[in-house]
Amino acid sequence: MEAINYKVRVLIVEDEPLIAENIAMYLNNHDYEVAGIAYDYEEAILKLEQEKPDIVLLDINLEGELDGIDVGKFIHEKMGIPFVFLSSYSDKSTLERAKHIQPSGYLVKPFHEKSLMATLEISLSNFASSNHVQITELNLEKINSQLLSPLSQREFEVLFLIYAGKTNQQISQDLFISINTLKRHINNAYMRLQVTTRTTAIKKLRELMKRN
Which residue of 10, 15, 91, 203 lies most exposed, with the fewest beta carbons within 10 A? Predict the structure, then answer.
């Protein structure tokens, strides 16, 4: 089995290297892992398929024939993960094009670190509530009936909050446990689900809840 990944993994798609590096620095300052940086459409698609991030920060105005909205369309149709559009332009036509791709968030440049973190948290939460089985419908008994090794109540609580789009820092605060203790619970829960990342854990929970 692959190594367990505990953090929310973020792919940055931004054609201005300085901005991309600043975003990476912001992410590293918080409870996120940079899954990679892509500078154009082709590189973005490659990294999406290779790195399988949990969420994407996506500049709309990429150089080349295909722009960030085209990347967003690919994510929406093929990946099933949240993405946030970044743009220097907030004109009506750009907003209309972006809206049709159903992003989880939209952030106008320039932005501050706090704005980026808030947008990421809200986008993860919104995506969880709008695209998954309703959080209240997760049922420990039903999930455990399909697992060889059942989840504990605490492991289920951790998965419940991951499913809701919470970061590790938020989960540790909500459950009043240390990050190291949280990682132990995540490790055990992922092993029981036979997954290694947040995205695959969420997909597995969806599958288990849909079965009769």
Answer: 91
